[in-house]
Specification:
binds ligand EPZ; 15 helices
């Protein structure tokens, strides 16, 4: 898929403000107050990290962003009140909430991690530009809307920091199910005048988004749909599990061949979002860098969902032991260089590429990281070079020559995972690191700073007061 800067997401406050305890909203330096989207009028622009503090204890990861967003979209398929639990309190979830509310859904926040989404009164099938521009994942409503209404109107998703991010495979697959597309004024109009009919669709590439949109349309198609070369990510299995709980008939999710038997209707359910393997992987890298003598535990996810990451880290000399509900990670005494290439699941996830590059930058020798999924996911590397790393980018290969240490610097988050990886680099770098454009991090990490502080890190938000107080 390897073959362009984009919108920033500021998230919305209303959904959670009513249930987040007041003291957590206190606007202070240090480990309190998540970045930017909880306090109107005050911009928390920077995360400051003091390097060299060892980490210990335990961290519990939230529900998976890349599942929660699709589960929320899938509630459109089951008119009524679906309850999602273990929902991450992150800005992307807030944006998906706005997309659904814009269509007529109601969202009740039962507590910080439980949402009741009622889609009975949904009458619109449009995902507006301002929200799709903020978050590409809004295109995940296309399949459910076609399944429910036989129609969908989606703003054409632009590119993002990671690359072109086309949806041609979504469209090709849905066309095979009988959907007709036309585009005008920056919108994609999709309709299935004769209804959706099951068929065999072979994906050119195991695209996560295309597999999910096809499954969500096919559950309401007449007959059977077979998706060949389907993506196998754990988040797709989580989506299929919820749809099957709603009355769908999906087999083979998590394998390259998914079979969907269309059904007449789906009913609302209560479903728990799967643990976030990428957030877990991010903390495991933090442990490899700075865990104390006894290591620390990362819980709330299934280690099987990080099989290749853990295997690669063990090759790098990092001890990662399975424990009940997660893993215990210990600091690497010496980091062995190893080559990595990003691939669809169960290969090495592209969403862990930046975090693992921090380890490679400190390895005792040379490593090559090859990015096969996104054209433009090495913007992070130049920021790491500012911290003293020795990295050369050649097309979709990063040639990394390990250095003895990194030094703190002012760096900019290029995207969600790159931003988190810069904070990780700051944990081990000499001196202070200041990471800006942290709204990227808030898109996918709930309480990232608080969780690091709870492990013993010296990390804080540095606030740039805004004159317009709330
Ligand atoms: C999902 O994106 C995740 N996002 C991404 O996580 C993740 O990196 C990616 O899957 C791969 O694992 C969400 O789930 C919200 P794809 P998605 O369809 O669905 C190209 C993060 O950091 N492609 O598998 O967009 C596409 O341009 C984010 O949490 C086409 O060319 O991934 C990309 O290069 C980043 N045409 C590649 O395939 C298509 O029709 C992978 O896309 C579809 C995709």
């Amino acid at each position: 898929m390897v073959q362009t800067p984009a919108s920033s997401c500021s998230g919305c406050v209303a959904v959670f403000k009513s249930v987040v305890p007041k003291q957590k909203l206190k606007h202070a330096r240090g480990c309190q107050a998540p970045p930017g989207f909880l306090l109107k009028g005050v911009r928390l622009d920077i995360i400051r990290v003091e390097g060299g503090h060892t980490l210990s204890g335990e961290v519990e990861v939230a529900g998976a962003k890349n599942s929660a967003l699709k589960l929320m979209a899938a509630t459109l398929l089951a008119p009524g009140r679906t309850v999602l639990t273990n929902v991450p309190n992150i800005s992307d979830v807030h944006v998906m909430g706005k997309v659904l509310k814009g269509m007529g859904a109601t969202i009740e926040v039962l507590d910080e991690h439980r949402l009741a989404i009622d889609t009975s009164a949904v009458t619109s099938w449009e995902a507006p530009y301002e929200l799709v521009a903020k978050m590409r994942a809004s295109t995940a409503v296309m399949g459910p809307l076609l399944g429910r209404f036989g129609r969908a109107k989606i703003a054409m998703p632009g590119g993002c920091n990671l690359g072109a991010r086309k949806i041609d495979m979504h469209i090709l697959g849905l066309e095979a199910l009988g959907v007709q597309f036309d585009t005008e004024h920056g919108y994609i109009n999709a309709s299935a005048p004769n209804g959706l009919s099951g068929t065999v669709v072979t994906l050119e590439f195991a695209s996560v988004g295309a597999t999910e949109n096809l499954i969500m349309a096919a559950v309401r198609a007449s007959g059977t749909t077979v998706i060949d070369n389907a993506a196998r990510e754990p988040e797709i299995v989580d989506l299929a599990n919820m749809l099957n709980e709603m009355g769908a008939r999906i087999e083979g999710a998590g394998t390259p061949v998914v079979t969907v038997q269309g059904v007449e209707e789906l009913h609302p359910v209560e479903h728990r979002v799967v643990g976030d393997r990428i957030e877990a992987g991010t903390f495991i890298v933090a442990g490899a860098l700075m865990a104390g003598e006894d290591g620390f535990d990362v819980k709330g996810f299934n280690p099987m969902h990080l099989g290749m990451v853990i295997r690669k880290m063990e090759t790098m000399g990092i001890q990662v032991d399975r424990i009940e509900g997660g893993v215990r990670v210990r600091r690497a005494k010496r980091i062995e260089p190893t080559d990595i290439q990003t691939l669809p699941f169960p290969g090495f996830p592209t969403d862990m590429q930046a975090q693992i590059m921090v380890l490679s930058a400190l390895a005792d020798g040379n490593s090559i990281i090859t990015e096969n999924i996104f054209e433009n996911r090495f913007m992070f590397a130049s920021e790491l070079v500012r911290m003293g790393a020795d990295i050369r980018i050649e097309s979709h290969h990063a040639m990394i020559h390990g250095v003895r240490e990194l030094s703190g610097a002012q760096v900019v988050s290029p995207d969600l995972r790159g931003g988190a990886a810069l904070v990780l680099a700051g944990l081990i770098a000499e001196g202070y690191t200041q990471v800006s454009a942290i709204h990227h991090i808030a898109r996918g990490y709930e309480d990232f700073v608080e969780k690091l502080c709870a492990l013993g890190a010296k990390v804080e938000y540095v606030t740039v007061p805004d004159p317009v107080e709330d």
